[in-house]
Amino acid sequence: TLDEILERLEANLNHYDRNLPSLFCDEHIVSRVKPGSNEKNAVTDSVFRLKRTVNADHTSSLVESREIKTVDGKPPASQPMKSLPSLLSGVFEGGFAVVSLSQKACMKYKLERVHSNRPGEPYVVRFATDLTPANKAACLVQEKSEGKVLIDPGSMEITHLEMTTLHHVIVRGDAFGAPVVGKWFVTADYAPVVLDGDTFWMPSEITSRDISTSEGFRPTLWSFEATYRNYHRMEVKSRILPGGGTAEP
């Protein structure tokens, strides 16, 4: 049933939140703006980090950061900042929480019927935001959105996420101009990663596309395609040498 699936997804999310260690991986990003000059397009290679940080209330958060290694194959210092892509954040943890018991008050969920008896056929849960003034503050998704997740029946883990927001703020307005709004499409694929003998499902590919629909602003497509590989636990190893000893190179 839908409730049984949500309970399993909540258990997976809790395991992820409690046990996922700080980690790093290789991140490869292709960012494009159309129409636009080539200086707004970039291929970026970075070391992506997800660090567990202790908050003042003794809870912990998973904080995302990245160290850019190259932009279009060159050191980032040789590239103008405007060539760097606009990066998507929050998918590493938030993608799993979109369909969960903790967000049930913010979402309408629907379990699709499985029309095939093929082994391994995924469960499909569709979702749509159900935002109200009373619940919005506690909702992960703050804009009117809809989408679906695919769930592996063996592990009961989310393997694929799709979400569409029809009225998304792409560029926030300021004193010099009105905000740019449009349609936002995001997808994420997840794959199992073993860290310290424990298995976690981590993003392998993420795509994001924004299409402007603002009146008076020419239609523009911002695209973001990222792949994540070579996950490793973030750790520091040290060795104490006997007195008079020297460290090996």
List keywords for this structure.
10 strands, single chain
C-alpha termini separation: 58 Å
Multimer state: single chain
The overall average pLDDT, rounded, is: 85
Tell me the structural class.
mainly beta
Rg from alpha-carbon coordinates: 21 Å
Helix content: 10-25%
Largest beta-sheet characterization: 10 strands, antiparallel
Q: Which strand order do you get reading across the main beta sheet?
A: 3-2-1-10-9-8-7-6-5-4
Count of individual beta strands = 10
Helix count, DSSP H or I runs of 4 or more residues: 2
Uncertain stretches of 5 or more adjacent residues: 81-85
Globular, elongated, flat, extended or rod-shaped: what is the shape? globular
What fraction strand?
A: over 45%
State the order of secondary-structure elements, H for helix, E for strand.
Answer: HEEEHEEEEEEE
